[in-house]
Write a structure and sequence with these properties.
The complex is a heterodimer. Chain A is of the alpha+beta class. Chain A is built from 12 helices and 8 strands. In chain A, a hairpin with a 6-residue loop joins strand 2 and strand 3. In chain A, helix 5 runs antiparallel to helix 6, helix 5 packs across helix 7 and helix 10 packs antiparallel against helix 11. Chain B has 3 domains: 110 residues, Butyryl-Coa Dehydrogenase, subunit A, domain 1 (Orthogonal Bundle), CATH 1.10.540; 98 residues, Butyryl-CoA Dehydrogenase, subunit A, domain 2; 147 residues, Butyryl-CoA Dehydrogenase, subunit A, domain 3 (Up-down Bundle). Chain B is globular. Classes of the chains: A alpha+beta, B alpha+beta.
Chain lengths: 404, 369
C-alpha cells in the first residue's frame, strides 16, 4: 500500500524526502493545462495517498505512516506551500475520518480508497423536525433481506446539507427502531447519494445565497454493510463524528481568530466614508464593536496557548457564542452609521448592501452548527458543570414522542 | 521585561494567595472596612515583609524589580478577595512616579519607605471632574525661592486621610509636574468624602499656597506611564474580582433548590451564566494582554491598556450585578458578599477614567495605528 519506510525520520529528513518526491511527481503547472496534459485529479490523489502523504497520522495498514501531529504538520506545511492537492485528509476529510475511526475493517476496505481519491461526502443529519434536537430524527430505514446482510430502504427528509450536488456519499442518521427511547434507535449509514429516490433541492437563504440543500429521500437503498458502528448505535457514532467536525472547525477558527489585524478596522472606514466618525455616540459603539472582536481574538490566543500547554482548553467552546455577539453587533453598528441609508440596497449602494447582507448572514453563526441557545447549554453544562434541564422525552419510546 | 523567573513569579503569586487566604477572608474584610482608614495595618506589614510593596521598585532601591505582568497577576489575587489596602496608590502609582524621578537623594529615601511599608502615599491626580485627564487638573504650582507652592483643589484622592506623603499633579506654567507635599501642613485641607463602597477611601484636598517640592524629571510621559500602570493593576484586580463573584454564583446555582431541582438546571439562569463566562474570560485575557504589552514596552500598549480598562470594568459591573440577581434574596442581605463585589465593581468604573473615556482612547489608538 505504501512504498516509503515508516522508520522514524527527523523533521529535516522528512521534509527532504517529501520535497524530493514532489519534485519527481508533482507539477503545479499541469493543474492549469487544458486537454490531455491537464492533471488527472483522481489518479494524483491515488498517487499521493499511496506515498503516505495524504493521511500521515493513520496507520500504515490504511495509507498512513503512523506519524504524530508534529510530523504531520511538517508534511502539511510543505504540501500547502507547494499548493499540492490532497493534503491532510486525516484532518479535513470528515467522511473518510469517520469511516477510518469508527467503521468496520470491511467498510474501510470497501470505501476508504474511494473516499480519499475524490469521492466526497455530505452530511445528512438535520431534519425539518430535528434541528437543535438532533436525536429526534424521523427519516426511517427499514431492513429487507438479501445477500451480504441485506439492505435498508430509506425514506425521509434532510435539510441544511452543503455540497450535496456531486456528493458520492451522505453520512446519514436514520431511525431503525421506533420502540425504544430516541437516542437508542438511530443508526449511522454511509449512504450512496447517486441513486433513484434521492432528490436534491437548493434552499434559498435570507442572504440571497444558496449554500445548502434539502434532500428528499424516497425509498432509496443503502447496503447493511454500510452501517458505521452498531445497528441502533448511531447516536454514539454521531457524537464522535461531531467531535471531529468541531475539532476541524475549531482549528480553523483559532487560526483565523488568533490573527490580530493591525489595519484600520472596517467600521472606522465606513464611518469615515459617511461622515460619522466624529459623532461621539457612534464612536463609542464602534469602539465597543471592535473591542468584542479583539477580546475574542485574545481569548482564542489564550486557548491556543492552553492547548499547547495542557492539550485542551475550555475557552475554545466560547468562541462560537462570542462570534454571534460580534457579528450581530457589528452589523447593527454599521446600520447606525449608515442611518436611513440602511434602507437602500443593490450595487449603487454598496455599503448599505454589505450591511444588509451582514445583518442577515450573522444568523448563519448564531443558528447554524448549534444555535446560541444550544451553545449556552453546552457551556453551562460542560464547562460550568450546571445540571441539565429535564428532558421529558428522554426515556420514552420514540413513537410516543410529540413532534411538530 | 522583568528578570524574575516564571517559577519565582508563580511562587510569589502562591505565597500572596496563601497570605490573603489566612488574613484577608470575609471576616477580615469586614473588620478592615469598618476601620477609619479602611485597611489592616498588620496585613500591610506582612505584605512589606514579603517584598510585595516594592514589587515594581528597582532592586537598587530596595525593591524586587517586577514588571506589569507580575503586578497584574498579584492584583487578580487581591481582587478575588476584595483586598482593602493602599497598594494601588502607594506601591503602584506613587512607586511608579517616584521611580521616574532624577532626584537620586530623595528618590532612595521615598522608595525605601514604600518598600518597607513605613509610609503610605496618596496621589492627587484629578480634580472635581474626576476625569483623570490633563484638563481636569486644577492646581497651579508657583516657584518661590528654592521651593514651590501649590494652590487649587484635587479630588477623588485614594487614602489621603491616612497618607504620610502626598504626591500632587499640578500645572507649572504649561507643563504638568509632580510635587511632594506634607499632608499635615496647615495649608493642606484634607476633607474625607463619604463613599458608597465601604472598602473605598477618598478625599478632596484644598491646597492654599502649600509648600511643595518638585519631583524632578517626572514629566507628562512619566505621569501617563504611572496612570497606565495603575489601569493595568486595576484591570487585574477586576479580572480577579469578576472571576471570584462569578464562581461564587455558579456554585450557588448548583446548591440552591427550588421546585424540587437545582436552580442551575433552568435554562433561564444557566444561559445567563454562559454569557457571563464570556465576559469573565475576556476580562482575564484583556488584563493579561495589556500587562504583557506594558511589560514588553510595546508601542501598542496604550491601545490594549484602554481596552482592558473598559472591558474589565464593564465585565465586573455586569457580572456582579447579575450575581445579585441570580442569587436572589440571599444576596440582598448585607451579610452576603455579593454586594461588596458589586460595590467594588461600581468603584472601578470611575477610577482612572470612565469606560467611555477608555473606549474613546481605544478608538483613537486604532485610527492612528
Amino acid at each position: 500500500m505504501m512504498t516509503s519506510s515508516t522508520a522514524i525520520l527527523s523533521n529535516d529528513d522528512l521534509a527532504a524526502e517529501l520535497n524530493a518526491w514532489l519534485d519527481a511527481h508533482w507539477d503545479d503547472q499541469r493543474r492549469r493545462e487544458k486537454g490531455t496534459d491537464r492533471l488527472d485529479v483522481k489518479s494524483w490523489l491515488g498517487k499521493i495517498l499511496d506515498a503516505g502523504y495524504s493521511v500521515p497520522t493513520w496507520s500504515p495498514e490504511w495509507f498512513g505512516r503512523g506519524y504524530d501531529s508534529k510530523q504531520a504538520r511538517v508534511i502539511d506545511d510543505i504540501l500547502k506551500a507547494r499548493k499540492v492537492i490532497g493534503r491532510s485528509q486525516d484532518r479535513y476529510n470528515l467522511g473518510a475520518v469517520t469511516v477510518y475511526r469508527l467503521g468496520s475493517e470491511e467498510l474501510k476496505s470497501a470505501l476508504l480508497r474511494e473516499m480519499l481519491t475524490g469521492a466526497h461526502s455530505c452530511l445528512l443529519y438535520s431534519e425539518p423536525n430535528a434541528g437543535s434536537d438532533l436525536a429526534g430524527v424521523r427519516t426511517r430505514a427499514e431492513w429487507v433481506a438479501g445477500k451480504d446482510g441485506g439492505e435498508y430502504i430509506v425514506t425521509g427528509q434532510k435539510v441544511w446539507t452543503s455540497n450535496a450536488k456531486g456528493a458520492t456519499y451522505g453520512m446519514l442518521l436514520a431511525r431503525t427502531d421506533w420502540d425504544v427511547p430516541k437516542h437508542s434507535g438511530i443508526t449511522f449509514f454511509i449512504f450512496p447519494m447517486q441513486q433513484e429516490g434521492v432528490d436534491i433541492r437548493p434552499i434559498n437563504q435570507i442572504t440571497g445565497e444558496s449554500e445548502f440543500n434539502e434532500i428528499f429521500i424516497n425509498e432509496a437503498r443503502v447496503p447493511a454493510r454500510n452501517i458505521v458502528g452498531e445497528l441502533n448505535g448511531g447516536w454514539k457514532v454521531l457524537q464522535t463524528a461531531l467531535a471531529y467536525e468541531r475539532l476541524i472547525m475549531g482549528e480553523g477558527a483559532t487560526e483565523r481568530q488568533g490573527k490580530v489585524k493591525s489595519m484600520v478596522p472596517p467600521l472606522v472606514e465606513l464611518a469615515q466614508r459617511h461622515g460619522r466618525l466624529q459623532d461621539p455616540v457612534i464612536r463609542q459603539k464602534i469602539a465597543q464593536a471592535i473591542a468584542y472582536r479583539q477580546l475574542n481574538a485574545l481569548n482564542m490566543k489564550r486557548a491556543k496557548a492552553e492547548i499547547i500547554a495542557n492539550g485542551s482548553s475550555s475557552l475554545m467552546s466560547l468562541g462560537k457564542l462570542a462570534m454571534s455577539r460580534i457579528q450581530h453587533g457589528e452589523a447593527r453598528v454599521a446600520s447606525e452609521i449608515l442611518g436611513a441609508a440602511s434602507l437602500f440596497d443593490g450595487p449603487e449602494f454598496q455599503d448599505s448592501a454589505d450591511m444588509n447582507f451582514d445583518s442577515a448572514k450573522a444568523y448563519m453563526n448564531s443558528i447554524g452548527g448549534g444555535s446560541d441557545q444550544i451553545q449556552r447549554n453546552i457551556i453551562s453544562e460542560r464547562i460550568l458543570g450546571l445540571p441539565r434541564e429535564i428532558e421529558v422525552d428522554r426515556n420514552m419510546p420514540f413513537r410516543d414522542v410529540k413532534s411538530g | 521585561m522583568s528578570d524574575i523567573s516564571s517559577d519565582d513569579r508563580q511562587a510569589m503569586r502562591d505565597s500572596f494567595a496563601r497570605l490573603l487566604a489566612e488574613q484577608a477572608g470575609d471576616k477580615a474584610l469586614r473588620e478592615a472596612m469598618a476601620t477609619p482608614h479602611g485597611f489592616d495595618q498588620g496585613l500591610w506589614q506582612a505584605m512589606a515583609e514579603m517584598g510585595l510593596l516594592g514589587l515594581i521598585v528597582d532592586p537598587d532601591y530596595g525593591g524586587i524589580g517586577g514588571d506589569a505582568q507580575i503586578l497584574e497577576e498579584l492584583m487578580e489575587e487581591a481582587g478575588a478577595v476584595l483586598l482593602c489596602s493602599p497598594f494601588l496608590s502607594t506601591a503602584v502609582m506613587a512607586a511608579s512616579l517616584i521611580s521616574a524621578s532624577l532626584d537620586e537623594g530623595r528618590k532612595a529615601g521615598l522608595l525605601g519607605s514604600i518598600c518597607d511599608g513605613s509610609q503610605i502615599f496618596a496621589v492627587a491626580a484629578t480634580g472635581d471632574g474626576g476625569l483623570w485627564s490633563d484638563a481636569d487638573i486644577a492646581i497651579e504650582a508657583r516657584e518661590m525661592g528654592d521651593g514651590w507652592t501649590l494652590d487649587g483643589t484635587a479630588s477623588f484622592v485614594l487614602h489621603a486621610e491616612r497618607a504620610d506623603q502626598l504626591l500632587v499633579l499640578a500645572r507649572a506654567g504649561t507643563a504638568l509636574r509632580v510635587f511632594l507635599v506634607d499632608p499635615g501642613a496647615d495649608t493642606v485641607d484634607i476633607q474625607k468624602l463619604q463613599t458608597n463602597d465601604p472598602t473605598l477611601r477618598l478625599s478632596r484636598i484644598i491646597f492654599s499656597t502649600a509648600q511643595a517640592q518638585l519631583l524632578t524629571g517626572v514629566d507628562e510621559s512619566a505621569i501617563e506611564t504611572a496612570l497606565d500602570l495603575a489601569r493595568v493593576a486595576l484591570a487585574g484586580e477586576q479580572a480577579g474580582g469578576v472571576k471570584a463573584i462569578f464562581d461564587l454564583t455558579v456554585d450557588y446555582l448548583k446548591t440552591r433548590y427550588q421546585f424540587g431541582r437545582q436552580i442551575g438546571s433552568y435554562q433561564s439562569l444557566k444561559h445567563i451564566a454562559a454569557d457571563m463566562l464570556i465576559d469573565v474570560e475576556s476580562a482575564a485575557s484583556a488584563a493579561r494582554h495589556a500587562a504583557k504589552m506594558v511589560a514588553t514596552g510595546s508601542p501598542g500598549a496604550k491601545e490594549f491598556v484602554s481596552l482592558a480598562a473598559f472591558a474589565c470594568a464593564d465585565a465586573y459591573r455586569d457580572v456582579s450585578a447579575q450575581a445579585i440577581q441570580l442569587h436572589g434574596g440571599i444576596a440582598y442581605t448585607w451579610e452576603h458578599p455579593a454586594h461588596l463585589y458589586w460595590r467594588r465593581a461600581r468603584t472601578g468604573l470611575w477610577l482612572f477614567g470612565s469606560s467611555d473615556q477608555h473606549r474613546e482612547t481605544y478608538l483613537t489608538c486604532l485610527e492612528t495605528a
